[in-house]
Amino acid sequence: MDNSELAELLNRVADAYELQGVEWKPAAYRKAANSVQNLEQDLLEIYRFHGIKGLIELPGIGKAIAEHIIELLETGHSKKIDSLLKKVSQSHSEIMQLEGVGPKKAYKLIEELQLSSIAELKAAAQQGKIRVLKGFGEKTESNILRAIEMHLQGKKRRPFAEMLKESQSIIDYLKQHAVPQKIDYAGSLRRRKDTVGDIDILVCTAQPEELMKTFTSMPRVDHVLAHGSTKSSVVLNNGVQVDLRAVPEQSYAAALLYFTGSKEHNIRIRALANRKGYLLSEYGLFTLTDKKPIACNSEKSIYKQLGLHYIPPELREVRGKFEATTIASLPVLVEQADLKGDLHTHTTFSDGNSSLQAMVQRAQDMGYSYIAITDHSISARIANGLSLDRLKAQWEEIDNIAAKFKIRILKGAEVDILKDGKLDYPDEILEQLHVVIGAIHSSFKMPASELIHRLTRALLHPCLDILAHPSCRLIGRRGPLQIDYKQVFKVAASNNKILEINSQPSRMDLHDTHILQARDSGVKFCINTDGHGTDEFAFMGYGIGLARRAWLTKNDVINTLPLSKLRRYLPRIPQ
DNA sequence: GCCGTTTTCGGCCCGACTGTTTTCAGTCG
Questions:
Q1: Homologous superfamily in CATH for domain A158-247
Q2: CB A205 within 8 A of CB A175
Q3: Which positions on chain B have an atom < 7 Å from some protein CB?
Q4: Which nucleotide's C1' is closest to A259 (Cα)?
Q5: Which nucleotide comes closest to A102 if you measure CA to C1'?
């Protein structure tokens, strides 16, 4: 049983308790589920190495839940949980997940209408059976029908970059049609999560009502979920939900903190505030006793008042590291300005859209001191992979233009890792390349043991420097390779191989939990754009966001090094 | 069920909006 399966089970236990109206336990189980879901290590591994003590050390997991988990890990079942879940089918949990339906409504619907599936709920709604229930009405009935439609469409999380663009366009619209004094996106977008569920926007304005009206009547709004004087929610015609919140100026910092989340982070700092004699809400920080406001004009000043260092949005997740931030100083996270070059780029030689010269020029304009040109290798037919002749022609062109640029051009290749783990160019060619990036581009569904063998063999090749987009996922289209990543990370670490954090919006690979795990194995990283055109150098920020979410500092990332020191990791770069 | 720089017992973040009901429970973030 893996972490996500365990988390799902714990969530269903929470559902079961919630349906029964039990207090506090649902929150406790959800917290535990969340904790397990966000874990960088397999729970089974933790248990193997550290026993029950290792589990209890995790946030939100105490003796009782730890014992259930152990039973589940060892036998696949837990008596207590099995009997609880008998009362709550999968579809009961699904009904509770419908927008606007919580435990109370779900219980009433299930009990009074004797429901056992979403389909039956839909039928009941269509037959007008819901509106007659006490506490329900016509409006609720039609809301449930719509919620079912939305549920069936599936509320997919979308790639960060897509949602960033979406939020920017809404912010632009609001700036154009209303006059907000301040406006920011918040939520998981601001925390730079690789996928984003909905968009949260915060504004400060003198006319909140007017702004809410502008917002809910934007041309792209499909329907309005809520429309109040300070808070509204809409669903756009592409299915993206957007929440807008307006606060007065003196509350802006506290509101930004609150609206950025994560939910668990909010709960923790609000509880901490209470312990220190304060009340923290989106309106500000107040004394607990007489509710006197304490002037805080930035998030930083709020954290400071609570005795904390400033926690960057990317770190506001509960990963059991909150305590570290209260005691020691936080690490200085890697920033875009730290990067000295991009080690993974494509040109028109293979499947890029910009010429070699144009790519180098843009990299130089960005202030980089080196760029690796890494077009595809021969087997990547779809990507116009380079034959040996064309590869040599590329080297010639690099030699010819090198003098025109201040920036150093590194000869590289993104070499396919073939099915058997061999690299796609002969060794005598690989030895002449300054940077060899290995990547899997086909046969993703091989059995796990064969995939591990394939990757291990590639990582053991003396010429392979970097493993590109290691999990091979494409957000929303292809899941990550189903393998034991820890094994791969260990091989990479002990052979000084670099793992890539790929910044392509659809990849965002490695994922932050994998980065954390890999870093703990002793791996170094490089953050690359995998750019296929000059405009794609701008993607670098997405990879930086992932790295920051995984607590990476400059020292963890090799392309923050100047060329002279980069040779430590890429030894074939000539003087 | 979890947790503790007041606590091993008694708390558990806080406020807006909706719909149904006439003052608020339920839901959401």
A1: Beta Polymerase, domain 2 (3.30.460.10)
A2: no
A3: 1-3, 5-7, 11-21, 25-29
A4: B29
A5: B27
